[in-house]
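ok so heres the complex, four chains, lmk if somethin looks off
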Amino acid sequence: MGKPSYRDIAAILRREIEAGDYERGSLFPPEPVLAERFGTTRATINNVLRVLRAEGLVSTQQGRGTTVTAMTPRINRDAISRYRKNSRERARGAFDYEVRKLGMEPRSDLTVGRAVPPADVAAILNVEPGQEVVVRSRRMYADDVPVQIAPSYIPLDIAAGTVLEQSDQGPGGMVSRMADLGYRQVRMSERITVRPPDEEEANFLQMSTDQRVYVITHVGYTADDRPVEVCVHVMPTHYWTLDYSWEVDPAE
Amino acid sequence: MGKPSYRDIAAILRREIEAGDYERGSLFPPEPVLAERFGTTRATINNVLRVLRAEGLVSTQQGRGTTVTAMTPRINRDAISRYRKNSRERARGAFDYEVRKLGMEPRSDLTVGRAVPPADVAAILNVEPGQEVVVRSRRMYADDVPVQIAPSYIPLDIAAGTVLEQSDQGPGGMVSRMADLGYRQVRMSERITVRPPDEEEANFLQMSTDQRVYVITHVGYTADDRPVEVCVHVMPTHYWTLDYSWEVDPAE
DNA sequence: GAGTGGTCTAGACCACAGA
DNA sequence: CTGTGGTCTAGACCACTCG
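and the predicted structre for the whole thing:
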């Protein structure tokens, strides 16, 4: 029976957190205190907290301290149903619906402008590298905790001078507005990857580099198979689960 | 102009790896060598390698060393098309197809038996906690690199004594065999989460705890909406991307 | 047994948040 | 200013892999 390793200490603290010994959103004991409690040094406690951060149980901000993560139930993003018209019009959009379902309060910012899209987005939209598009950038919160960044890119020939360059979008969101403009989306595709957050993302989403984000590249196509909108969702993995469901075509 | 931090060192090595200075699959310089090169200590180099591991660029095994990750292009899992009958029958299954598309050689093991499923799986299948089901456990490799663990659970009243308890499954895979038995799946759902690997997963998938796995809980339903099969895919995030695409129902 | 990374100690300085 | 975590040094012992 040796000394507890950092994994053992993490296991002890994990049990305490899951048992509710620390209030959600409250400050965790400082590293020197934990070091004393477990008869070790800050370096080891650092490792312990890295484990707990990776699991999404705590979250650390330099200078402030480590807090017990406020959001234990994960937000569920149901990709297919969220783009049905019914869902879009209910509860002012899919995100609002998803967050309210957990009993939390949704909120979001929107910034509208023009910018050169990332190279991969430009390639999907078939716009020349370096050419500007309309960007509608949403930043989303649940109970004031930032939980998602989602810039949306639309080619200029579709969006320039239209309601898509305005902040107010009305019921049904973007997909409905584009349909009004004659660009009805009939097919969606999403590609999911996972990576560490970059500096800006880590900053806004209050994440450490021990945590990860989903990157969902969502593309909407019109009936003539033109990609008319790309939305890149960046979401901390410890706040979200992703759902997809579909019918199996018996003929194929 | 201070000393380079571990992030700076990581950035230098990242560029070197991406420029192809190290052969894929070859050993990376040992920590003491890197410490000397950058005028620092092993502790700092440890941090550097943690960053590179998190990005999936290198992979470390204790006692052996750090290797430059063999697989730069990620395997693409297209959830919807992989369950179409055409795809299933092509190239001996969806996994084979996905891997061959990258020019790599797929391989997989299958273990068939009975076991008590995890609680969440039991709940989905509506079987009593503690009751056994048939488990078909696949372990998958690409060019002999382990890339996925996927146990599949089927209730006993469906699978007991059938071909589903045998190792050889024939063309079209499980879904076709279950259809033959009168359990045709007409609807699929998948729920995606991300977490650090547990000890067994880290061991088999040759991952460190700095890396993450997707956990995809796939459920197949028959026409009377009964869940007849649950498959839990565990896949390192740095080896895979996930694709979904669907038609938008204009009526809804 | 030699060489690898995993982990730990003891101590230090720094960046940052908040009163 | 005080207290927080971020990062680093210098050194040590251990667990594991492989020849």
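quick notes: Chain A is about 30% helix and 30% strand. thats all i got rn
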